[in-house]
Design a protein that fits this description.
Mean pLDDT of chain A: 95
Largest sheet of chain A: 2 strands, antiparallel
Shape of chain B: globular
Number of helices of chain B: 14
Oligomer: heterodimer
Low-confidence stretches of chain B: 1-29
Radius of gyration of chain A: 24 Å
Low-confidence stretches of chain A: none
Helix content of chain B: 25-40%
Shape of chain A: globular
Structural class of chain A: mainly alpha
Structural class of chain B: alpha/beta
CATH topology of one domain in chain B: Alkaline Phosphatase, subunit A
Number of strands of chain A: 4
C-alpha cells in the first residue's frame, strides 16, 4: 500500500500523525462518529448568524437607503460602518478558519473529507449574503450532523434548511390555487424543485419531465421563511398552508395525495431511495475519491452497501473507502485547489489558519490583513469554498481545474506565499525532507530536485523549494 | 407591435451569385479576424435586452418589469438603456441582433443548458469539447484561443494550447516550470503537461501581475492581445448572474446590472481594438431565455428563446434579424416562453466561417455533426 492513500482519502500526514500498520482500518475507523469541531475561537450558531444577516439587510434596506436616499457618499460611509457592526466582512473569514483548522488537526481526517464532499454535493452557491453569514454554519449544522444518518435524512434536513430554501428561492414559490396564490395572483418558482431532482437526488438520468418539476414544485410550496417586517427574509422556516398548492400531485409516476406538509417527506423518501439516485450519488462519491471516470465495477459495491444498509451514510462511506483502497495503486485523482492547500497545510504544518485569539473580532473596524489572509489565498488559487458560481457546486473533474492561469496560481502560491507561512522552527532543509519522507514513496527523487537549494533558508530559497515540490504531479494528484 | 411571422431566410442566393466574381483571398481576408464570445450564464432575457415595442401582452404579463427609456432601434424593437455602446455602434452599422433564437435545447436546466451552449450538442455532458474549440481545430488554428477567466471554459476545449488570462497577484518565475516539467510523465499527466507548454509560450505582456477583479484591465489586456497580428484570434469572456428569479426589475434591476457588464466589456474592446475592431465580431451566448410572464418574486423563470447581441466591423449592417414567432399564447413555446425560430448554432457556425476563412459547409460537418444549420454569413456578416 502506498502512502498516497493518506492523501487520497485524507490530507496526508503531519509529522505528528503516524503511518498506520493497517491504513484501511485506520480510515474505516474514522467514520462512525462525528468529531467535535476543534477551533478554539468563536463558533456562532446558524441562528445567531442569521440574526446578523437580518440586521445587515434590514439596516441597509430599511434604514440606510431611506435615510440617505439623496446622499450617495453619506450612504456609502454609513453602509461601510454597518458592515463592520454586523460582521458582514468577518464571519466568512472565521468560517474558513474553522474549516481549515478542522482539516488540519482533526483526528478523523477521513470524516472531514466526506464533510467537504457533502457540503459540495448540496452546494450553496454565491447568492445574496449567504457566503457572508450562512453557508459556513449550514455546513456545520445541517450537513455535518447528518453524516451518521441516512442519505434520506440528509436530503430532508437540507431541503428544509433556511440556507437552501433561500438559495433556491422556495419562499417565493406559491401554489397558484393556494389561498395566497389566488389572492395575490402569485405562482410557483421552480428553482428549488428542479435542483432537488437534478442535483441533489435523481439527476437528469431519471428522465423527469417539465411536468414532474412543476408537480414537485407544487409539493414544495409553503416551505418558506416566516417573513416579518423586522426580520425580513431571515425568519425561521415553517410550512405555510396558505401558500401550499391544493390537490393531488404526481412526480415520476407516483401519486402524492393532498396531505399538506407531509407531502414533502414522502416525495423525498421516494427520490432519495430511487435506484437512479443511488447510482448517481455513488458515482459522484467514487469520482471524488477514486478517479474522474469511475467504472461500473468500482461503483457497484458502493451501490450494494447503500441498498443493504437502506442508505446509511456510515456504511456507504465505508464502502467508498474500501474501493478507494482497492484501486489506490492504479488510479489517479487530481485534487482541486482547496484540498491541495489543506494537504500542504497538514503535511508542512503551515501557519494557517491564523490563531484563534488573533482571529478575534471586535466589530469596531475592518478585519485586518492577517484575518483576511486565508480567504484571500483561497480566492486567489481559484477555490473560495462558499462561492461556487452555480448550485451544482465545484467541479470534481481535472479538466475543469487545469488551465494556464489556475496552474500558475498554484506555482505563485507555493513559491511566493507559502514561504511566509512556514513556521520559524521549520525553515531547515531537514524539515522538508522529513515531511517528504512521511508522505511520499519517491521522496528521494523529490529531494534531488531541490538539492541545489539545500543551504538556503531565506524566503526566496524556500520559495524555490516549495514552488517545485508542491507542483509535482504526485502532489497535485494522487 | 404589428410584427408578424416573417420569413427572413430567403434572399441569400443573389448575393451568393455576386460573391463568385471576387477572388477568395482578398486583402481583407489576409487580415487577422477576431471572434469574441461573451457567455451570459444564467439565462439572458432577450425580451429585456431587445424588447418588442408596444406589445400589450408583454406589458400585461410583466407589470413589474416594464422598461422605460428604451433606446430606439427600429419600428418593432428597442434596446435596453444600459446597452448604450450597442446603440452607438448600431448607428454605424456595427451592431446587430438576432432575436427569437436559441440552441436547440428546451429542458430549462442551467447546467444541461450551459453544457449544451458550449458543446453545441444535443445530449448534455455527452461531448467533452466546445464548438469553438472544434471550429479552431477544424480550421487548423491552434494556440489562438484566449479565455478571460480562471478555469478554461468548455467552449474552447478540443483544440490544444489555448491560453487564459486572469493574472495572479505576483510574478511566477518561469524556470520553476522547467524544473518540474519533465516529471509529468504518462498519459494521465498529458493535460497538465500541455497546459505547462502553453504557459511557457506566453507573450511577455501576459506575464504581469495585476488585480484580476478589475474587469476593465482584463478586457483591456484582451484587446491588446487581439490587436496583435500574431496574437489570439478568439477570446471568450464569461459573465454570470443572469438568472434573475427575483427582483429582475426594469431599467435598474438585477438583469440591467448584468447587461451593464456586457456593455462595459464591449465598450472597452471597442475603444482599445482601434482599427482591429473592423476585423472583429463580438457575439453573446446564453443557455436559454426567460419566461414571458413574471413570477412570484418579480423575476422570471427559465425559458427558451432569447437573443444574440452582436457588435463589430465584420457585421453586414445594423439589423434585428429574426423570424418573429409572436407572443400570443399559442405562439409561445409550451404556452410560456418566447419561441426559438433560428437555431443559434447557425449564427455561430457562420461567424466562425467568416472569422476563420473557412467553408461554412465544412465547419457544419466538422463542428456540428452536419446538423441542418443554414449559412447566414451573407445575411449577417461581411464576407
Amino acid at each position: 500500500m502506498s502512502l498516497k492513500f493518506y492523501r487520497r482519502v485524507a490530507f496526508g500526514l503531519s509529522l505528528k500523525d503516524k503511518q498506520d500498520k493497517d491504513p484501511l482500518n485506520w480510515a474505516l475507523n474514522q467514520l462512525d462518529t462525528i468529531p467535535d469541531l476543534l477551533w478554539p475561537g468563536t463558533i456562532s450558531t446558524e441562528k445567531e448568524l442569521r440574526k446578523k444577516y437580518g440586521e445587515w439587510v434590514y439596516g441597509d434596506r430599511e434604514v440606510l437607503r431611506k435615510k440617505f436616499k439623496n446622499d450617495k457618499h453619506a450612504y456609502k460611509k454609513a453602509k461601510d460602518e454597518l458592515r463592520i457592526k454586523t460582521g458582514e466582512r468577518y464571519f466568512e473569514l472565521n468560517e474558513h478558519a474553522i474549516r481549515h483548522y478542522q482539516t488540519k488537526y482533526s483526528k478523523q481526517p477521513v470524516f472531514e473529507r466526506f464533510w467537504l464532499f457533502w457540503g459540495n454535493h448540496f452546494a450553496i452557491s454565491e447568492k445574496d449574503f449567504l457566503a457572508e453569514f450562512s453557508t459556513g454554519p449550514y455546513q456545520r449544522e445541517i450537513i455535518r450532523p447528518n453524516m451518521v444518518k441516512t442519505f434520506e435524512e440528509m436530503v430532508q434536513s437540507v431541503t428544509t434548511s433556511w440556507c437552501m430554501i433561500h438559495h433556491l428561492d422556495n419562499s417565493e414559490s406559491f401554489g397558484p390555487n393556494s389561498k395566497k396564490g389566488m389572492e395575490w395572483g402569485e405562482t410557483i418558482n421552480e428553482n428549488h424543485a428542479r435542483e432537488l431532482l437534478e442535483l441533489h437526488t435523481v439527476s437528469p438520468n431519471a428522465g423527469y419531465t417539465q411536468e414532474d418539476v412543476i408537480q414537485l414544485a407544487y409539493i414544495m410550496t409553503g416551505w418558506a421563511h416566516k417573513w416579518s417586517r423586522k426580520n425580513l427574509e431571515t425568519g425561521d422556516i415553517w410550512f405555510d398552508q396558505e401558500m401550499h398548492q391544493k390537490g393531488d400531485k404526481v412526480v415520476l409516476g407516483i401519486k402524492y395525495k393532498n396531505d399538506a406538509k407531509r407531502e414533502l417527506a414522502k416525495v423525498i423518501h421516494d427520490l432519495a431511495t430511487h435506484p437512479i439516485c443511488i447510482k448517481f450519488v455513488s458515482t459522484k462519491l467514487c469520482r471524488h475519491f477514486i478517479t474522474d471516470e469511475p467504472t461500473e465495477e468500482m461503483i457497484k459495491p458502493v451501490i450494494e452497501a447503500w441498498n443493504k444498509s437502506n442508505g446509511k451514510l456510515i456504511e456507504i462511506h465505508k464502502a467508498v473507502i474500501r474501493q478507494a483502497y482497492k484501486y489506490n495503486e492504479n488510479t489517479h485523482k487530481f485534487h482541486p485547489p482547496e484540498i491541495w492547500l489543506m494537504q500542504l497545510s497538514r503535511m508542512f504544518d503551515l501557519n494557517i489558519p491564523l490563531s484563534s485569539d488573533k482571529m478575534n473580532y471586535t466589530f469596531k473596524s475592518k478585519p485586518n490583513r492577517k484575518q483576511r489572509q486565508l480567504s484571500w489565498i483561497l480566492r486567489e488559487i481559484g477555490h473560495s469554498p462558499y462561492r461556487a458560481k452555480q448550485p451544482n457546486g465545484w467541479s470534481d473533474f481535472e479538466v475543469d481545474w487545469v488551465s494556464p492561469e489556475l496552474l500558475l496560481r498554484r506555482l505563485w502560491f507555493a513559491s511566493v506565499e507559502l514561504p511566509i507561512l512556514i513556521k520559524s522552527g521549520n525553515r531547515s532543509h531537514d524539515f522538508i525532507l522529513a515531511c517528504l519522507k512521511n508522505n511520499f514513496e519517491d521522496f528521494e527523487n523529490m529531494a534531488s530536485l531541490i538539492e541545489q537549494y539545500r543551504f538556503g533558508t531565506l524566503d526566496y530559497d524556500l520559495g524555490r523549494k516549495y514552488g517545485v515540490i508542491c507542483n509535482l504531479p504526485g502532489v497535485l494528484k494522487v | 407591435m404589428n410584427c408578424t411571422r416573417r420569413n427572413f431566410l430567403i434572399g441569400g442566393s443573389t448575393t451568393l451569385f455576386l460573391s463568385g466574381y471576387f477572388p477568395k483571398i482578398s486583402f481583407a481576408s489576409m487580415q487577422k479576424k477576431n471572434l469574441i464570445i461573451i457567455s451570459l450564464r444564467g439565462g439572458m432575457d432577450g425580451l429585456t435586452a431587445v424588447p418588442v415595442i408596444g406589445d400589450k401582452r408583454l406589458k400585461k404579463l410583466r407589470k413589474k418589469l416594464i422598461l422605460e427609456d428604451v433606446l430606439n432601434l427600429n419600428s418593432d424593437f428597442g434596446l435596453h438603456p444600459k446597452l448604450e455602446i450597442f446603440h452607438k455602434l448600431w448607428k454605424k452599422n456595427q451592431a446587430a441582433f438576432v432575436h427569437a433564437t436559441n440552441i436547440p435545447y428546451t429542458g430549462r436546466s442551467h447546467f444541461d443548458g450551459q453544457n449544451l451552449m458550449e458543446t453545441g450538442a444535443h445530449i448534455p455532458y455527452k461531448e467533452k469539447t466546445g464548438w469553438l474549440g472544434r471550429g479552431l481545430l477544424a480550421s487548423n488554428i491552434t494556440g489562438k484561443g484566449l479565455a478571460i477567466s480562471l478555469p478554461m471554459p468548455l467552449l474552447l476545449r478540443g483544440v490544444p494550447q489555448n491560453n487564459n488570462f486572469f493574472p495572479s497577484p505576483d510574478f511566477v518565475e518561469k524556470n520553476l516550470i522547467d524544473q518540474i516539467y519533465n516529471e509529468f510523465k504518462g498519459e494521465h499527466n498529458e493535460l497538465i503537461k500541455s497546459t505547462l507548454d502553453t504557459i511557457r509560450q506566453r507573450p511577455l505582456s501576459m506575464q504581469i501581475a495585476t488585480d484580476s477583479d478589475d474587469r476593465k484591465k482584463l478586457a483591456l489586456e484582451a484587446a491588446k492581445q487581439l490587436k496583435d497580428q500574431s496574437g489570439p484570434r478568439v477570446a471568450v469572456f464569461d459573465l454570470d448572474g443572469f438568472d434573475t428569479h427575483t427582483a429582475q426589475g426594469g431599467v435598474d434591476g438585477a438583469h440591467a446590472d448584468e447587461l451593464e457588464e456586457v456593455n462595459k466589456i464591449v465598450t472597452i474592446l471597442h475603444e482599445n481594438l482601434g482599427q482591429a475592431f473592423d476585423n472583429t465580431l463580438i457575439l453573446t451566448l446564453t443557455e436559454f431565455g426567460r419566461t414571458i410572464k413574471q413570477n412570484g418574486g418579480y423575476g422570471t423563470e427559465h425559458g427558451y428563446g432569447s437573443a444574440i447581441l452582436m457588435a463589430g466591423g465584420l457585421l453586414k449592417k445594423s439589423q434585428v434579424y429574426t423570424d418573429w414567432p409572436g407572443l400570443k399564447k399559442k405562439e409561445l413555446f409550451e404556452g410560456r416562453d418566447l419561441n426559438s425560430t433560428i437555431d443559434s448554432r447557425a449564427i455561430y457556425n457562420s461567424a466562425m466561417s467568416v472569422c476563420f476563412n473557412q467553408d461554412p459547409e465544412f465547419l457544419r460537418k466538422e463542428v456540428f455533426w452536419g446538423d441542418a444549420l443554414p449559412d447566414l454569413s451573407q445575411e449577417l456578416f461581411k464576407i
